[in-house]
Design goal:
This protein is an alpha/beta fold and 389 residues long. It has two domains: 11-181, Rossmann fold (3-Layer(aba) Sandwich); 185-387, Dehydroquinate synthase-like - alpha domain (Dehydroquinate synthase-like, alpha domain, Up-down Bundle). The chain contains 15 helices and eight strands.
Amino acid sequence: MLNFDFYNPTRIAFGKGKVADIDKLVPPEARVLIIYGGNSAQKNGTLDEVQAALGNRRFELFGGVEPNPTYETMMKAVAQVKSNQLDFLLAVGGGSVIDGTKFVAAAVFAEGDPWEILLQRGANVKKAMPYGTVLTLPATGSEMNDGSVVSRVETASGLPDKLYFSSEHVFPQFSVLDPSKSFTLPPRQLANGVVDAYTHIMEQYLTYPVGARVQDRFAEGLLQTLIEIGPKVLQNPQDYELQANFMWVATLALNGLIGSGVPSDWATHMIGHEITALHGLDHAQTLAIILPTMLSLRRDAKRAKLMQYAERVWHISEGTEDARIEAAIQNTRSFFESLNVPTRLSAYDISADAIPAILSQLESHGMVELGEHKDVTLDKSREVLEASI
């Protein structure tokens, strides 16, 4: 097992009716900006519950955060915080709303151009506003980690940027996880959440062995849980037990626990970000496209873990090594497809003509040595994209 430091200060309030705990979790004198996305938080009553839980605290609303939060939109929230002297943020939504809120929390105290937070991957963040979250869509794990992805539409190149930053200053102080808030989500969002969580686990698990038995078994259990409940959640979205397990798996997939003491990959995510930025695909859709191909083309470097994955997660123990590895990769692709998430670029009307622009963006963002071995060069990324058509 590799050396590691594990730190996660986020308090989790989990269960039905836990939105009411906001009254205990937000300081009584706080001046709050509630940040949310579209109309769903209003239609399903969550926004009303949050406002009621805040009681007599002063609060303001900021809505309209996009499914891929943009720098342009979130800077409007920064301006509202500054002009109205607000001092606490409350994100109500899924990963995009929470990611956007993390950027706002950091950008309020930015010295110079706030976009530098993304360009420097968060290394320049020294302070952030306190904030909490009310999760309505299990997927990204953003409710219990220090990472955020933000897009910028207006760029010098004319092409949108989608960049990642992290900082220990932007951990949520608390996150409310009420599984019943996911009851009314459409199948597409639920399916995306399953794929997102699954791929998060794979990026940390399917690299190379370092003797981290605890992390491996934990990751394998989470993967098996998603395989078991993923299709059922889509069929029975109002089953509390299913939603509770789904929500907790998605949180555990990226709260730092299974990634401590092990190498991680993230090449699939970096390529996926560029596809989303250029073509508008859902984040999870890009992961479903890239991951199976990435595993296939890097099977030699990942052989030991692919064999372990085949046996422990998919219970494949017969046949040659290559046959077992191929079966595990195909099972992964089939699992995504069973959730009605296509795994080919062509399914989204993206052809090989789009590949040069994706590679150009990867290069401009410094994504030229990806993966746990830093061996995913632009040439390897091209191979992956070409094989994903």
